[in-house]
Write a structure and sequence with these properties.
Elements (H helix, E strand, L loop, with lengths): L15 H11 L2 H14 L3 E3 L9 H18 L41 H9 L6 H12 L11 H11 L6 H12 L11 H11 L5 H12 L1 H5 L3 H8 L3 H12 L7 H7 L9 E6 L2 E6 L7 E3 L1 H12 L5 H41 L1 H6 L10 H8 L3 H8 L3 E3 L4 E3 L7 E3 L5 E3 H13 L9 H10 L6 H10 L12
Parallel strand pairs: 2-5
Antiparallel strand pairs: 1-4, 2-3, 5-6, 7-8
Length: 487
C-alpha cells in the first residue's frame, strides 16, 4: 500500500564553490600561477593588478546592482525564453559527450620527450653495412628491447613472430648475428638477454686491461651466482685470492651499468626545481613564517566590467539583448569576486595550518635536529586549528617549506609515535635517524642484521620489534645486511 507523507532531514552538501576551494587548497605554489592564468582566460572580468581606489562608493554600487536585479526579476515575467533559442539548429548538448564531472581530477600521464636509447640505436644501425633484410631484422630487435636495454624474448619466438606477423623468413642463427651487431653499439650492454650477458659485454668493451679485466670476466662467467649473493669468501677461496687482490676486481664490476638503456633516460630527464610554498626563518630567536607569494599575483575585477554594470543599473530602457549581455557581465563579475576571495581564503588557511605545524615542532625549526621532531599526525593539527583532517591533508599534500637547514616536504613532519622505557613518546622519525646512523657506522665486512639493530635500539631505550626495524629500514631504502656487505 502506497502512502504519502512529509518529512524533514538535515543534510550536508558541498557547493561547487566549496569543491573548487578544496581543490585550490591542494594546489602547490608551482601550479597556482597556471591555475590563475586559466581562470583569467575564461573570465574576462578578472585581471592581474592591484585594486585601484574607485571614486564610486562600493555600497552605492551594490545598491545599484540589487536594484537592477529587482527590476530584472519583475520584467522577466514578460520574457519568452524560447526567443533565446534557434529552433532550426540542433542544441549543443545533443552533439557533446559529457560522461565526467567537471570536478574530476585530471590524472593524465604527461608524455615525455627526449632522445631514447632506441633512437640512438636506429641512428647507428643506419651507418652499418647491413643489407635490406638484415636492417629490417635489426629494427625489429631494437623495437623489442625493454626500457633497460634488454631483449627479454627468446630468439625462436621472435623468428616465429617475424614469419607470421610480417611475412619475413629468417633463422635463429641469422637473428643472432644481427643481435651481435646491436650489442657492439652504444650504450655498451644493450641487446643483452640477461644481467650476466650485459656485464660480460661491458667487460669485453672496457678499456681496463690486464689481470683485473680477466678476473672480472672469470667471476661473471663461472661465479655469477656467488657474486650476486655477495659470497665473496667463496670466490676468494676458489680463485685463491686474498681480499686485497679481489677488492679492485669487485669494485670494477660494481661500477658497470646493469641497466644500459636507463642511462639515456637519466640524461634526458627533465630536472624539476622545487619552489617552497612556505619560508620559515629564525630572527632574534623568534620563528617567522611567511607564505611564498611568488606565483600568486594580485587580482582585481576589470574596471570596464564594473562600469558596464553601473551603466546597466542606471539605464531606464532595457531591451532583451541588453539584459542577456548584462546577465553575462554580472555572472563574470560574481565569478571573479569569488575567485579572488578563494585565493585569499586559500592563503589564509595555508598560513594558519602551517603556523600550527611550526608551533608544534618548534624545537626542530629552531635547531634543525631531526631527533627533536615530535610525533605528529594529521589529527593533532586538525584539533589545534579546528578543521577537518581532510583539510590538513590537502594543505600538506605536495607542499614544501624552506628552512635555514634545508627544504622539506610538509609530510616529512608527520610521523608515528613510539614509547621508550621511560614511557615517553618519541617520533618514528627519530628512531629512523638513529637506525640510519647505526648502519652508516657499521663495519661493511660484517653488516648489522635486523636482529642486531633491534638490540642496539632496545639498549637506547626504544621498545621496537625486529619486524618494525625491517619496515623502517625498507622505508629508508636500505638493503638487508647481506647486500650491504663490502670487502
Amino acid at each position: 500500500m502506497l502512502k504519502q507523507f512529509l518529512s524533514q532531514k538535515l543534510q550536508q552538501k558541498l557547493s561547487p564553490q566549496q569543491i573548487q576551494l578544496m581543490k585550490m587548497l591542494q594546489i602547490p605554489t608551482m601550479e597556482l600561477d597556471q591555475r590563475i592564468k586559466e581562470e583569467m582566460e575564461i573570465n574576462p572580468a578578472l585581471e592581474e593588478g592591484k585594486e585601484e581606489e574607485s571614486q564610486d562608493d562600493p555600497d552605492k554600487m551594490d545598491e545599484q546592482e540589487e536594484q537592477a536585479e529587482q527590476e530584472e526579476a519583475k520584467e522577466n515575467e514578460d520574457i519568452d525564453i524560447s526567443e533565446y533559442f534557434d529552433d532550426d539548429e540542433t542544441p549543443d548538448y545533443k552533439l557533446q559527450i559529457n560522461n565526467h564531472s567537471s570536478d574530476d581530477e585530471n590524472r593524465e600521464t604527461p608524455i615525455g620527450s627526449g632522445r631514447t636509447f632506441q633512437d640512438l640505436l636506429f641512428a647507428q644501425i643506419a651507418m652499418t653495412d647491413l643489407d635490406e633484410n638484415e636492417m629490417l631484422l635489426a629494427e625489429y630487435l631494437i623495437g623489442n628491447l625493454d626500457e633497460s636495454g634488454y631483449l627479454r624474448r627468446e630468439i625462436t619466438a621472435i623468428v616465429n613472430d617475424l614469419a607470421f606477423s610480417m611475412n619475413i623468413g629468417t633463422t635463429p642463427a641469422e637473428l643472432e648475428a644481427v643481435l651481435k651487431v646491436i650489442q657492439d653499439m652504444d650504450p655498451a650492454g644493450v641487446g643483452a638477454r640477461d644481467l650476466r650477458e650485459c656485464l660480460l659485454i661491458q667487460i669485453k668493451r672496457s678499456e681496463e686491461s690486464g689481470q683485473i679485466k680477466n678476473l672480472a670476466n672469470l667471476i661473471i662467467t663461472k661465479y655469477f651466482e656467488e657474486f650476486t649473493k655477495k659470497h665473496y669468501e667463496k670466490i676468494s677461496k676458489r680463485l685463491e685470492l686474498d681480499d686485497q687482490h679481489l677488492k679492485p676486481v669487485i669494485d670494477f664490476i660494481l661500477h658497470l651499468n646493469p641497466k644500459p638503456g636507463s642511462s639515456m633516460v637519466e640524461a634526458t630527464r627533465t630536472v624539476q626545481h622545487i619552489v617552497p610554498d612556505f619560508v620559515v626563518s629564525v630572527e632574534n630567536d623568534e620563528l617567522k613564517l611567511t607564505l611564498n607569494g611568488r606565483n600568486a599575483p594580485e587580482l582585481k575585477i576589470s574596471k570596464d566590467y564594473k562600469e558596464m554594470m553601473i551603466h546597466y543599473a542606471n539605464s531606464r530602457s532595457k531591451d532583451k539583448k541588453e539584459k542577456e549581455a548584462m546577465s553575462f557581465v554580472k555572472q563574470k563579475i560574481e565569478a571573479a569576486k569569488w575567485f579572488i576571495d578563494a585565493i585569499k581564503q586559500r592563503n589564509d588557511t595555508l598560513i594558519y595550518c602551517m603556523q600550527a605545524i611550526v608551533n608544534y615542532q618548534q624545537e626542530f625549526f629552531r635547531t634543525g635536529d631531526e631527533t627533536k621532531l615530535k610525533p605528529m599526525i594529521l589529527k593533532d593539527i586538525a584539533d589545534l586549528v579546528g578543521m577537518d583532517i581532510s583539510t590538513i591533508s590537502r594543505v600538506a599534500n605536495s607542499k614544501y617549506v624552506q628552512t635555514p637547514y634545508a627544504t622539506y616536504l610538509l609530510k616529512y613532519f608527520f610521523s608515528e609515535s613510539l614509547s621508550t622505557d621511560d614511557g615517553e613518546e618519541v617520533s618514528s622519525r627519530e628512531v629512523k635517524q638513529i637506525l640510519k646512523d647505526a648502519i652508516e657506522a657499521e663495519h661493511k665486512r660484517k653488516p648489522l642484521t635486523d636482529e642486531k639493530l633491534m638490540e642496539i635500539l632496545n639498549e637506547k631505550g626504544y621498545n621496537i620489534a625486529r619486524r618494525t626495524v625491517a619496515k623502517y629500514r625498507e622505508q629508508l631504502n636500505i638493503p638487508v645486511a647481506r647486500l650491504r656487505k663490502e670487502l
